[in-house]
Amino acid sequence: MTTTPTVNPQIIGQAENAHKPLMARVLAPTGLTFHQWVTLNLTAANGGTVERELLVGRLTGALKIDDSAALQAITGLIDSALLEAQPATVELTDAGQARYREIRASIDEVMARVYRDIPAEDLAAAGRVLTLITARLNAEAAA
């Protein structure tokens, strides 16, 4: 009889690391880096336009990167014409919206297969626990 482990740093790390090759496979044909994908995703989640400073803050918080790396991801998307720079904001271009939808559809397809037989209540419990752990780790890191 196998015992299901409780959530711990090793289990969380293994789950995160298992996602990486799938993301790499989805992103490879697009030429985007993971940081650029997260930038597109955050911009799309904000309605397609976001204040540059706010976006940098969200990227540094979510990815645990410095401002320079966040700005590099934004600049790369501007150079690729997927984002358009405004004085204080960046916005998705038509090409950026199309690329976002293409990547999102691929990710959703893969994740649907991966998560398909997991009961909704288990996913909800895992979401609550991981959100709480993330908040506590962020608070600990900030202290």
TrEMBL record:
Organismal lineage = Bacteria, Bacillati, Actinomycetota, Actinomycetes, Pseudonocardiales
Q: Output this protein's name.
A: HTH marR-type domain-containing protein
> What InterPro entries does the database record attribute to this sequence?
HTH_MarR-typ, WH-like_DNA-bd_sf, WH_DNA-bd_sf
GO terms assigned for molecular function: DNA-binding transcription factor activity
Question: Where does the HTH marR-type domain lie?
Answer: 25-123
Q: Where are the transmembrane segments?
A: none
Xref: SUPFAM superfamilies: Winged helix' DNA-binding domain (SSF46785)
Organism (species): Solihabitans fulvus
